[in-house]
Amino acid sequence: MNRLKQLTLGAALAAALVLHTPAQAHRSGASEASAGLSMLPVAISVVGPSAVLSAGVVFTVIAVEASVDGAVWVLESVATGVRCTVRLAGNAVGGLSVGVGTAVTASAVGAGMVLSAAGTAIAFIPNEVGKALLYNERVTR
Amino acid sequence: MSARRVVAGVVLAGLILALAIATAPAHAGQTCEQKAPDTQAITRGLALAGKVEQHLKGSSADVVVIARVGQDLREYGQRYSHLGFAYRDGEVWRVVHKLNECGTDTSAIFRQGLGEFFLDDPFDYEAGIVVPKPEVQAHLLAVLRDNGRLSRLHTPDYSMLAYVWSKKYQQSNQWALETLAMAEDADANSRDRAQSWLNLKGYKPATIHLSTFQRLGARVTQANIAFDDHPDKYRYSGRIYTVTADSVFLWLERSGLGSRPIAIR
Fold first, then answer.
1. Test mutation, B6, B21, B171, B222, chain A, max A CBs within 10 A
2. Digit-coded pLDDT (tens) for B144-179
3. Which terminal residue of chain A, N or C, has fewer Cβ atoms less than 10 Å from its own Cβ?
4. Does some domain include residue B113?
5. CATH label of the domain that carries residue B53
6. Angstrom distances, CA of residue B250 to CA of B94, B143, B163
7. d(CA A83, CA A104)
8. Helix, strand or coil, per DSSP, at residue A141
9. For residue B38, what are the β-bridge partners?
């Protein structure tokens, strides 16, 4: 009985400690979970002048239309006023705090363009290299 | 800006990958935090994926064992946390690996791009690669293209620290190792037999030392860690024998089944 109590107390203390250090709790293993990219919406299409989506260009979101499959954002370049429409897929789109007036910055990576708002990546627009790097298929149920 | 130019603008088609992404598990990175990734993490992950792809495309290999540093395991003497198989599929490279569904005790096998593999909120941006010898690559390639064979030794019940010689649970690296055994020996068509083959071939798991405190804490708070598959004599002395990416790399090289690991950063 005493032993059981001690174990229970030990478990409770351990749980309390681990609960206060969540990062450590998830880093004690040898094999792991997934999958971060599902949190990053990927562009299905971008319609607009080809030069508008260049590295360093700052946009303002002027329209947001959400759907069950993703979202459509209309972006306007702060410098030139040129607009483009970005259609996004991904169930994470709805969780993003992107609304009319949000400032969005484009930055180039080898695989395409990353759109960011306040340092957080909000969408990825893959080029041909990027498309080759992305694929997701569940093999087992 | 003419209307014609606007209409004639770029259309970046990505329907296939969009569909693929839409079916991705609805959970976050390895810390299981529901947060949007920061720009730097995405940039670095994609850069590493691109570098690995270039390396693989320029190599003569068709299949490699590939690992990432998803977590900081230095405390346990391990560099890489997770491994799978990458293989040439026409013009592209794909990765097949087993993933635990965040915060649960179940898992599934996935075929993904190198992008997904390195965008999973890693601790460090480094890939570890071992090139199996040509016969092993050929055996693995046949399995990697066959979803039925990929599923054969998969046990959905998941424990991150599953005991190496038990069939109760199966963690990601363990699935990869047992599947390699099945590819190498047609008789290793059950987990029992695959484990016997690995034992016979001299595979040695890593020993992770965990205090009682750590064990209890992990079990109480995490769905994806259990210890009831470990023999009592090891479990209560804090010795956890499990399949790590590092131990697989060491064995592949030692057994002559694979090359010395290389790191790409």
1. B21
2. 999 999 999 999 999 999 999 999 999 999 999 999
3. N
4. yes
5. 3.90.1720.10
6. 24, 23, 19
7. 13
8. coil
9. A120
- C-alpha distances out from residue A77 to A48, A62, A85, B18, B41, Å: 11, 10, 11, 25, 25
pLDDT in tens, A70-102: 889 999 999 999 999 999 887 666 666 789 999
- Report the SS3 class of residue B90: coil
B171 lies in some domain: yes
Q: What's the DSSP call for residue B38?
A: B
The reply to whether B13 falls in a domain is no
Question: Is residue B44 a part of any domain in this protein?
Answer: yes
Cβ distance B36 to A121 less than 8 Å, yes or no, reads yes
The complex's ipTM works out to: 0.84
Within 10 angstroms of residue A22's Cβ, the number of other Cβ atoms is 13
Query: How close A64 comes to chain B (CA, Å)?
Result: 18
A vs B, Cβ pairs < 8 A, gives 309
User: In the structure encoding, which two tokens stand for residue A24, read together?
Assistant: 């450590």
Residue B244, domain extent = 30-264
